[in-house]
Each structure stands twice: as structure tokens, then as C-alpha cells.
Amino acid sequence: MLLQDKVVIVSGIGPGLGQELAFASAREGARVVLAARTQAFLDEIEARLRADGAETLAIPTDIADREQCRALVAATVERFGRVDALINSAYTPGRFALFESSDLDDWRKTMDVNLFGSLNLSQEVVPHMKRQGGGSIVMVNSMVQKKPLDYQAGYATSKGALSAAAKMLAKELGRYRIRVNSVFMGWMWGPPVESFVNGSARSRGVAVDQVISEITEDIPLGIIPDDADCANAVIFFASDLSRVITGAGLDVNGGEFMPPA
User: Fold this and answer.
1) How do residues 7-32 score in pLDDT, each as one tens digit?
2) pLDDT value at residue 55
């Protein structure tokens, strides 16, 4: 198993990719620390993991609050003695709006979570990773900063800043064997996207298959990648299979976006 006996913190536990990251980490043998703002959902996912025999710790955490991040990492180290991998998956989409009518205060709130929240957690785990001789930090990023879409400028900007920060962290922390990599997700089939597809079909009076067909038209693999499959790319970076990779960005979108050579 790729994460056997490793301690992995996953932020942003929720329907979709967040829960799949937790399931994948446990399946690969990790002791999983679950972080999210919603206690009820944390309890639900923790119960499912424990029923399958996983060791877990669930801590309600708003990553925009530095003290809550500090408490999360401290509780992790107290319980398990170390932190081998941090998966920064928590995010907020912000409000969808065209730039000319956007509220820049909402952009700031989005940055507080997507950029500074992820950096809060990252900064908290660094001393522990240094002390133990290394670790992995994985930033869950988005294709939208590479393939711009209307109404998502605030979200894309926050993710673009996170991408730049990840490279700087990789450069600075590599000397301590702390790896920092990014995974750029596109469309992912799971509860959030399924809800969007169903709602779009209803509002337009068309079949669900038509909406899916429109989305997959630009995806060479011809499918909307499943959340669970996308989670596997993150697990790769969290594991020792990528122990000589840092500062990298992996596009996980079925080929919808292909960076120039």
C-alpha cells in the first residue's frame, strides 16, 4: 500500500473530491486526519473509514483561521506523533460574477481560504516535517486558472496565486526533503458536478445526457473523470512513489487542457 503507516491530513472533507481523498488515503494504509468546517459530515466520513478499519482523527477546522490550523496540526502530532503528508483540498468557489460586477471583498475572502488557508496549514506542518526528515505537501488546484471561464475570475485568481506559492515552497523546502506539488483538476464527476448537471438539464429543459455530452465534447477521453480517479493523482504525490518530484504540476482533466510542450 502506497501510504502504509503514514499520517495524512486531508483538508476540505466534503461531498466529492474531499471524501474521496480520505477514502483513498485510508485504502492505501494511511492514518487519516480529517479536517472540515462541518462537524456532521466529518462524523459521517470518519464512521465510514473506521468501519473499514482505518485509524482516524476528525477535527472541525476553518483553514482561514490560523489558530484552528495550529490546533489541528498539534492534535495530529499528539495523536500520531508525526505528519507525513498534507493534502490541501479545502476551498471556496467565491461568488460567480463577471469582473466588472464583482465584489472584490469577496475575492479577498476567497483568497483567505484558497491561498492563505492552504498556506496556514502548510506553515504549521513544516516544523514537524523538518524534524522527521521530510514530508509531502499537495495543493489541489484547478484547471480554471489555465483555461479561463467567465464568472470564475476570483476563484481562478486565488488558485493562480496558490500555484505560484507552491513553486516557491518547493524551492525553499526541498533542502529539508519536503516536497510541494500541485494537481490541477478539471471536471470531476461526483455529487457537486452531478448536482450541476441535473440542475442545468432541468433549467434548460434538456436531457441530462445532453449536458454531459456538451461537457465531454472537449475532453479527449470522452468522459467526465470520476472524483475517485482524480484522487489517485493526489495520492501519487503524497506517496513515496514521487519522492524525487517537487515543484511539479499534474493536469488531471481527461485531456481537456494540454499545456504546450
Assistant:
1) 999 999 999 999 999 999 999 999 99
2) 97
Cα 225 to Cα 5, 139, 234, distances in angstroms: 29, 19, 14
Confidence of residue 260 (pLDDT cuts 50, 70, 90): confident
Kindly tell me if the per-residue pLDDT of 261 is higher than 80: no
Tens of pLDDT, residues 76-107: 999 999 999 999 999 999 999 999 999 999 99
Please return the burial class of 60, using the count of CB atoms within 10 Å of its CB with bins 0-12, 13-18 and 19+.
middle
Q: Are 207 and 201 contacting, i.e. CB atoms less than 8 angstroms apart?
A: yes
Partnered with residue 58 across adjacent β-strands are 34
